Amino acid sequence: MTKVPDIWYPPIKEIAKYQEAWTKGLPIRITEKLHGVAVGFGVMQMNGEWDFVDGGCEPNESMMRLLNNICDGENQVFVYGEHIGVMGLDYGVKEPTVMVYDIMVNGEYLPWDLILGHCETFGVRTVPLLYEGPFTWEIVKAMTVGGSTVANPSTFKSDFKGREGIVVTPQMETDSDILGGRLIGKSTNPDFANRVNKTYTYWDK
Questions:
Q1: What is the mean pLDDT of residues 167-174?
Q2: How many whole angstroms separate alpha carbon 15 and alpha carbon 106?
Q3: What residues are paired with 163 via a beta bridge?
């Protein structure tokens, strides 16, 4: 087994700091940003041999079946997810769980419907989808706050039961000169950021 560092998935920047990168009406999806540990799993070819690579935690059988099915002996696959129930917010899960937010095949990110299809087939959970439609700042701000949709908040043991925030992604993969790469952004819930008496004012800048 080959270990790889947790630098596969590029850091997601606060959308409020790069507002000029986003265009009103752009078809987007918004998913809930979860509080946990970012992990990655992959099947890739190295020195002519197929090998499994991981970063963050051990995959379960369902995740391995998903990877092997997509790979099918010819595709390099990387699955990215959030390992929840291991720190901070517990989300009411009985044991730590990986929830997928992206899959890359041969260097290309898959559309959400394909991600969902693969994960449903093999019983792998995905992060909650909150919205699909045209981009507006009103939608982004409204979706940033509120309760978590992972599970009924009454099952949470942690004091904070809201969402950490959201991740905004175009429905069609898009590059941004402003961001210097993939167009993707996050918006952090001020209630989450301020839960330990911090002052969070991204939207005021």
A1: 96
A2: 27
A3: none
Q: Are 160 and 195 in contact (CB under 8 A)?
A: yes
3-12, 96-105, 189-198: which has the highest mean pLDDT?
A: 96-105
One-letter amino acid at 96 equals P
Query: What kind of architecture, by CATH, is found in domain 35-126?
Result: 2-Layer Sandwich (3.30)
Neighbour tally for 97: CB within 10 Å = 19
**Residue 163 to residue 47: CA distance in whole angstroms:** 43
Range list for CATH 3.30.470.30 in the chain: 35-126
| Residues contacting residue 31 through CB under 8 Å, at least 6 positions apart | 101, 127, 128, 129, 130, 166, 167, 169
Per residue in 101-139, pLDDT (tens digit) is 999 999 899 999 999 999 999 999 999 999 999 999 999
Structural contact between residues 27 and 133, judged by C-beta atoms closer than 8 angstroms: yes
What is the residue type of 5?
P
Does 67 have pLDDT greater than 50?
A: yes
Contact 134, 28 (CB under 8 A): yes
Other CB atoms within a 10 A radius of the CB of residue 71 amount to: 18
Intervals of CATH 3.30.1490.70 along the chain: 12-34+128-205
Between 198 and 151, where is the model more confident? 151
The CATH code of the domain at 12-34+128-205 is: 3.30.1490.70
